[in-house]
Each structure stands twice: as C-alpha cells, then as structure tokens.
Amino acid sequence: QVHLMESGGGSVQTGESLRLSCIVSDEDPYCSYDMKWLRQAPGKDREFVSGIDDNGIITYSDSVEGRFTISRDNAKNTVWLQMNDLKPEDTGMYYCQTWQFGPVRCRREHYWGQGTQVTVSS
Question: Is the CA virtual torsion 49, 55, 56, 58 positive or negative?
C-alpha cells in the first residue's frame, strides 16, 4: 500500500520561497501513479495546485502559474514543489496526493500524505 510523506513547509514573508518534498514509498511497480499537490486554506475548500502525471505532463492552477514548479525524480519516488514569490494567498495546508491506476490488479484509488503547513505573512 502506497505511503506519502510531505515536508518543507514553514512560515515565510511575502516574496520568499519554499520547497516542498513528497516521498512516495511502497508503490506497486506494476501500477502507474499520477502525482498532485493540493492545498487547503482556513475556511476554504481543498484546491488543486499542481500535478504531474506518469508521463511527465504538468499542470498548474492559474494562481500559481509562473511562480511554482513541480518536478519528479527519475525513479518517480519523490515529487517536489518549488514555490517562489510566495503570497499571503498561498497560505494553507499542502497535501501530496497520488492517484493509482493501471491493469486490473491496480485499484483505482487515491493516497494522501499528512500535509505540511505553509504560512506566508505580509
């Protein structure tokens, strides 16, 4: 069963940077995995931030395009989110999510990390 662990969050000032990491373990090598970063601000719904699929196709939300960069290592066991020029609106709990899919034995299901807090002050 897949496990994920996020790290790298913290408290920064507007304009500063953070780099989040997500370590993925216990993947089934027979299955495929799409990776996403999502975040949830206080009082708001969880929202999509960025994703990178099994083929390396990358997607960003409009609010982070040009400031954030998602990447995945060659072994596909780690995903990063480089966050530059942070704004107070970026504040929230950031979650790493994987979507498992593939042949019959690969159950289509999501796995989540515990989250890492990002706080950006004016």
Answer: negative
Contact predicate 24/7, CB 8 Å:
no
Regarding beta strands 18-25 and 78-83, do their DSSP bridges make them parallel or antiparallel, or are they unpaired?
A: antiparallel
Return the amino acid letter for 4.
L
d(CA 94, CA 114): 9
11-28: per-residue pLDDT in tens?
A: 999 999 999 999 999 999
Identify the bridge partners of residue 20 per DSSP, sorted by sequence position: 81
45-65 pLDDT per residue, tens: 999 999 999 899 999 999 999
Q: Which residues pair with 18 in a beta bridge?
A: 83
